[in-house]
Amino acid sequence: MTEGVFGRHSGHEQVVYCHHEASGLKAIIGIYSTALGPALGGTRFYPYATEDEALDDVLALSKGMAYKNALAGLDLGGGKAVIIGDPATVKSEALLRAYGRFVDSLGGRYLTACDMGTYVRDMDVVARETRYVTGRSPENGGAGDSSVLTAFGVFQGIRASAEHRWGTPELTGRRVGVAGVGKVGHILVDHLVEAGARVVVTDVAEAAVDRVRAAHPDVAVVSDVDAMIGTELDVFAPCARGGVLTDETVAALRAQIVCGAANNQLAHPGVDKLLADRGVLFAPDYLVNAGGVIQVDDERHGFDFARAQRKTAEIFETTKSVYALAEADGVPPAAAADRLAERRIAEVGRLRGILKV
Question: Which residues form the active site (predicted)?
């Protein structure tokens, strides 16, 4: 499989396969870059159909984390891990602790945290085997659920996008569709409703939709993502799995702005141009969903929620800067965000060659 990784021309520094037969652990850790510092990225627990599918996901996600951390101004590189399996049936203390030992074996090159399928309580278990973990519970010295600031950051991205498109960040009366109302999406709905937006939601989990409707009875519901894509919206906020923006979905999209929490929303690099050609403003996902990594990074320095929230609020201005650069350079916002991230990785990364006495 190592040759397959190189065959993808992924540019990763390191890819580690983790297998522990007794606990059933099958995981892959991808470290894209440590130019800015240790590679931080969450652990995704998902029932991938094949090992190749899991590998593709960890390669894309870890690269995205490098760009996210760079654009957020953090002294962190980019990494990610995936555990292969259904967390509802195979997750156990033994499996998580075995995973923690593999993380520990990397000696701090990779710092893990929560992601889809893993939670604060899981990080507490992983932390029993390694100190290279963040996103732990407050009872264990951690910052707790990072979804709170992830959603807050996406909300700031939506406000900045609204200002760029309509001249004001106000969302009163704007119709916003949130696809995926799980850990992050349901908190984003809270912000949107409070801001006066008219919210439409969908989720594959009926219980997730029921929770939102219980809190906000006026929220509308559509059957699935395809139905939402075909709905007249001001803002479409994908907050579930990635790859939702394909050639076909962009052609059917009826929103003026796309700004959501899901990682790797573009099915392939050319989709950002398709969005631009259709006049759809796209907020790069790794730019606006950085609130979570800002929170878990702050945990490493003695967590202060107000401090982390102030840092997350800066996503508003960073998003505006990305749009300004995109217009100045004549490129889609995704390309502009990549340029800003790559510039910081290159410029600061070069400082690593300067000996500190």
Answer: 80 (proton donor/acceptor)
Rounded CA separation 112/139 (Å): 18
Q: How does residue 10 score in pLDDT terms, banded at 50, 70 and 90?
A: confident
Could you tell me the CA-to-CA distances from 268 to 54, 84, 152, 245, 277 in Å, in that order? Answer: 17, 23, 27, 8, 16
Listed residue (3, 111, 8) closest to 56, CA to CA: 8
Contact 280, 258 (CB under 8 A): yes
The pLDDT of residue 9 is 56
DSSP run (H or E) holding 43: strand 43-46
Query: Widest CA span of the chain, in angstroms?
Result: 62
Domains and CATH numbers, the chain: 2-63+76-139 (3.40.50.10860), 147-343 (3.40.50.720)
Question: What residues act catalytically?
Answer: 80
Which amino acid is present at 274? L
Binding residues, by number, are: 180-185
